[in-house]
Fold:
Amino acid sequence: MKINNYIWIGILLCFSCSRHSDPAHEGMVNTFCLNEALRDGLVIDTLQKHEVLQHLRLTGQVTYNPNKVVQFASLVEGVMVETRFSLGDYVKKGQVIASLKSPELNIMVADIHGLQANVRLAQREYNAIKSMYADHVASERDLIEAKSGLEKLAAELEGLQGTLSLFHPNPEEGTFQIRSPASGYIVEKQVSTGMPIPQGANLFTVSDLDEIWVMINVYATDIPFIQQGMPVAVRTLAYPDEEFTGQISALPQVFDSEERVLKARIVLPNADMKLKPGMAVDVSVERQDGIEAVAIPADATIFDDNQHFAIVYHDDCSVELRRLIPAIRDNNWYFVDEGFEAGELIVRQNHLLIYEKIKSL
Structure:
């Protein structure tokens, strides 16, 4: 009977040794010690609980700030005889950038000459009546009428001269000089040499690109997680390794009728002019749910055989391969609600080498 008892005890001990631990753990504790090669460059992190974050990926486009845009529209009909700028050029305020030939120039100049002659005549009449009024020859009514007529002609002349000065006329060539109304970049151009220009047509648009807008597409499924003031990170294909940070400055309550999305706005400084209107961007927004979970760095995980693993460090001669099931994940963190505890040590660098070593045992 004693021999039989010893046999059962041996079987139970062997069975106990062969069992896996918690199902969430793979139960693979190595039976070797880390050698110098594995120790070299080893990085170990302490697991902690963090607020659960998710990075939502949105798309958008760079556009100019409409509050820093000046559009130039033609006040007269004519033909564009010269353009001195191209789309994207930088221009200074007052710089001549185009010339417009218009028959209205000759008409306006002739009208001004006629008004100037009438003003001189009205001035002489007023001076004569004023003198006669002083000699009691003319009545006060005559004086008032003469003064009123002079002021009316002078105001009409001043208005016409002001309109003409907007185009900086060159009477000798019969053209208007079109000058930039502000310093900035030509972000829109609707004219070319020889083009007929109707009255009121927009010729070009100048914008200061020191500050730009990024309009991002917020789809219906993402609306509950997007709020005004949330921090964002903007990336472009032109500068894939550079991140432009800002926040959502405005979130409208009306869907874009064509794209069926909300067009949220981000305002970004652009002193180095890297962000250009029309450029497509990817926008990352941090979603916060207000709950905490154990956070495992994404670069400390191992994906193999459609499963995720991490290496838990106990000491140099005891490291454990443990399976993890992320409840929530993003590009930076895997958040788990079971299988790992805050305070445990995890291998963040050299974990792939250790994983291969454990698999080979």
Notes: DSSP finds five helices and 23 strands in the chain. Confidence is low (pLDDT under 50) at residues 1-25.
